[in-house]
Amino acid sequence: MDSIYLISTGAVLDSFAQIRLKAYKRLLQMHFESGVGHIGGNLSSLDTLLVLYHQVLQKDDLFILSKGHSAGALYVALWSLGRLTEGDLKSFHGEKTLVSGHPAPKWSSDILFATGSLGHGFSLAAGVVLAKKLKKEPGRVFCLMSDGEWQEGSNWEALIFSVKKELGPLALVIDWNGLQGFGRTQDIGGLDPFAEKLRALGMPVEEMDGHDPIALEKALNRPYPALRTLIAHTHKGRGVSFMQDKMEWHYKPLTEPLYRQALEEIEKLQGGAS
């Protein structure tokens, strides 16, 4: 069966919905118990990571998390596949933990690089793709980025290099939630018309709803030119009324009353989600 049908077939869609609900709740629990912020951007990117790990990534494929402050969503996606344990998640952001607030490399084969200083993931991904090309190794490379980190010049340098060298297969997935640490992305450093800028430099671009797992899977698995960008339109703090599209949830930790409210709202959202 083609992978494009794996979550759009009813029975499997139900299974994925259950995985998704558990992942959302476990992400909230992990951030609440650790008292750590950055939950807004983790919620905006969790659907992309779940689809990548459950429906897209194959044996020879590699993934790089450029927006390192969404490490929590990556850990939960790995946990949902059994690649991280409950004990690992309970140590999140703790003393001497391997499951740190930004991903640390070498302890897990799923985490290739330490990321957190934004603007580096694309360059790292380009280097990995070039190495695969030189060594004639199979497999695709996927890199999850934030919208705000495109204010970093290193990404535009990586773009020029990657287009010139015709690197691929490389897919950049941009978690376009419209917010960054100090306000709306467009107000801090306007990027529009962003897609047109990428296309003008030779980068194919597709846009989709970043919270629609079927749309995400179709886009991620669709045959494309070797180098491409997928703009996933998302919501920071997705699914939680007091958090969604609110800049302050780039930082704030959850109190117990807010945690309980968030769990209730996620239950209702996922219960009726497609």
Would you kindly provide a written description of the structure presented here, covering whatever features stand out?
This protein has 274 residues and is α/β, with parallel strands linked by helices. The protein has a single domain, classed as Thiamin diphosphate (ThDP)-binding fold, Pyr/PP domains (Rossmann fold), CATH 3.40.50. It is built from ten helices and seven strands. It has helices spanning 10-34, 39-56, 71-80, 86-90, 121-135, 153-165, 185-188, 194-200, 213-221, 256-271, and strands spanning 62-65, 141-146, 170-176, 179-180, 183-184, 205-209, 227-233. The strands form two sheets. It has a five-stranded parallel beta sheet with strand order 1-2-3-7-6, sandwiched between helices. The chain has a two-stranded antiparallel ribbon with strand order 4-5. Helix 6 links the parallel strand 2 and strand 3. It is globular, with a radius of gyration of 18 Å.
What percent of residues adopt helix (DSSP H or I)?
Answer: 40-55%
- In the CATH classification, which architecture applies? 3-Layer(aba) Sandwich
Write the element-wise H/E pattern from the N-terminal end onward: HHEHHHEHEEEHHEHEH
State the CATH class: Alpha Beta
Side-by-side strand order of the widest sheet: 1-2-3-7-6
| Helix-and-strand structural type | alpha/beta
Low-confidence stretches: 1-7
Total beta strands = 7
Global shape:
globular
**According to CATH, what is the topology?**
Rossmann fold
User: How many discrete structural domains?
Assistant: 1
What is the CATH superfamily label? Thiamin diphosphate (ThDP)-binding fold, Pyr/PP domains
Give the overall average pLDDT.
Answer: 91
